[in-house]
Amino acid sequence: MQHKVVIVGSGPAGYTAAIYLGRAGLDPVMVTGALTPGGQLVNTTEVENFPGFPKGIMGPELMDNMRAQAKRFGTEFIADDVVAIEAVEPATDGQDSARPSYRLNLSDGDVLQTEAVIIATGSNFRKLGVPGEQELSGHGVSYCATCDGFFFRDKPIVVVGGGDSAFEEALFLTRFGSSVTLIHRRDEFRASQIMVDRAKQNPKLRLLTNTVVTEVHGTETAPATAPAAPALNLGGLSLTPKPQVNVSSVSLKNTVTGEESELETAAVFVAIGHTPATDFAADVVTRDSDGYITVDGASTRTTAAGIFAAGDCVDRVYRQAISAAGMGCRAALDAQAYLND
Hints:
341 residues; alpha/beta; FAD/NAD(P)-binding domain; 2 domains; five-stranded parallel β-sheet; 21 strands; 21% helix; 30% strand; Pyr_nucl-diS_OxRdtase_2_AS; EC 1.8.1.9
């Protein structure tokens, strides 16, 4: 079956594109991802900076709402991953307007054929890979200062990283935290000198070099239930509620002396970079040296006719849900114009 347009990836960019394309009558198909549809926001707790929700909204709920809105306008969802995109050259039938179509190979072996593609697969935070990081993600471990800094007002904060992004996050977090400690594994920073100078001039910010985080620790901050914690029975499966556990400290190791120590903190912000999820499209679109898809100016047009890209797989600067949603809108309008040409 030949589809008009297939969206690869969910999240704010993908769902917004689907809403616009569905309302345009283009019957979009969305390949959401096999494991975590909804992008990074499904792992976020409260979102307070998305317009229209004055009291905030939980990240998973926001994504569920977007999905329901896309479904309302006829989006078909496929819970799978795209492993490769192949260009299919048009038949030589003498028509000058003939355009290539695209074959999307899915991880389960299925194949989708489409006239246009919107890539909205986002990017993945690079992680420390230390004990406690995954378990305390969303409970003090964060990858976005703009999203979560407010929750740690008047509390000690740790930032891990040595580039401009890490310094930007650390300086931003000094607005909230009682103190901010930026930890870097080397004695020299990758950040620009002006960022380092600003950090050194900020009395709330301490720079800790030649140091790595080896473990993130948590402390129980609330019981499972009060006064008791009875097991929940779901279809014969008993689940015992777990107590609330939040970050309380990190274990550190000096990379030169090997000395180990522990630092109390209420939050660990990891800022060691992002990896855009674009490898599957490497054969059809142009990417920069870091793997971000390149687009034409302010548009979402890639170097391949009929393929558009939106969200964090393109945007290395803002990486916000609202900016991704706006780019998803632009991708849908660009795709619509392409299909109607």
